[in-house]
Here is the input.
Amino acid sequence: MKSVYIAGRSGTSGLLLHEVLQKREDIRLLAPEVQGRDALDRETELLNTADVAILCLPSAAGKKALARITNPTVRVIDTSTTHSVADGWVYGLPELKHGQRDAIRQARRVSGPGCFATGFILALRPLVDCGIVDPATPICVQGIGGYSAGGKRLVEWYEQPEGEAPPQVQVFGLNLEHAQVPEMQQHTGLQRPPLFVPWVGNFHRGMLVSIPLHRDWLRTNASPASVRDVLRDRYAAERLVSIKTRGGLLGSVALSQPLGIGVELFVEGNNDHLLLLARLDNLRKGSAIAAIQNMNLLLGCDEFAGIEENACGG
Ligand SMILES: NC(=O)c1ccc[n+]([C@@H]2O[C@H](COP(=O)([O-])OP(=O)(O)OC[C@H]3O[C@@H](n4cnc5c(N)ncnc54)[C@H](OP(=O)(O)O)[C@@H]3O)[C@@H](O)[C@H]2O)c1
Here is the structure.
């Protein structure tokens, strides 16, 4: 039986991962009670015993944990942004391009995609690949996420505020240097970093990423319908990416629950300008589901084992 160790199990992502993986009969979860800070030696031993170690830690703590893995047979998934564009690491988005799944299967080090980046890359990359968007185009993107995207401290801040009630919506990353920008650029093939404006809302989970594309930036005539077809072709065989058309009240794309386990892509706008939208749950495909997919590929299991509609709460 294959063994897995989750470092950072008490965190927002780690807890969900643990919840799903403990139901698996084909996997042995190593010592979930052990957590790094209080038991460094024991954790080091576990990190070096597991077939797969999943680091659900902030970037700095993840780097330290990685440095303690000396057993070359241990395969690592790092859910932080630290290695998202690093040499020697495979980007853990199986739907990225042809051959990505095989690259993950053979990898020793896999970098879990950022939550905003997952939506951005899945929406935009096919348009770059098929020549609708010139890779030299300066792209702007906005994304709003629930506060769980900021980890347990932000969850506490929103859910148990000590002073004034937290604002309904906040913009952050005002220096336009969000940690996910490098992966957004590299894994779409853009020649320059996209300008990413992130927002956080007063809701627990869920994420909407929007990319407006001006007519002048498109190389070919493209309508919402034709771009939808491009995305449908590209993701026809993918179980976790779906192309939706608006439904419901006035055709809005809302962040209502449940958001499902995958990513929903929408193409809106008109025959001049396009609006790409990606909707996902930051804690599912934006984090824990992606980690499980990658773990399954590394262990030679069915990629979707343990991933069902109710995986990782709702
Ligand atoms: N949340 C999301 O939607 C999301 C999505 C994609 C990727 N990620 C990435 O996943 C990673 C974990 O995110 P998260 O939201 O789960 O974070 P989190 O809720 O803040 O949890 C962090 C975990 O790391 C532990 N930890 C923190 N500092 C540590 C240190 N110095 N040494 C040892 N352990 C330490 C915490 O332990 P304590 O309980 O003791 O504090 C906790 O178990 C981050 O790199 C994040 O960027 C998160």
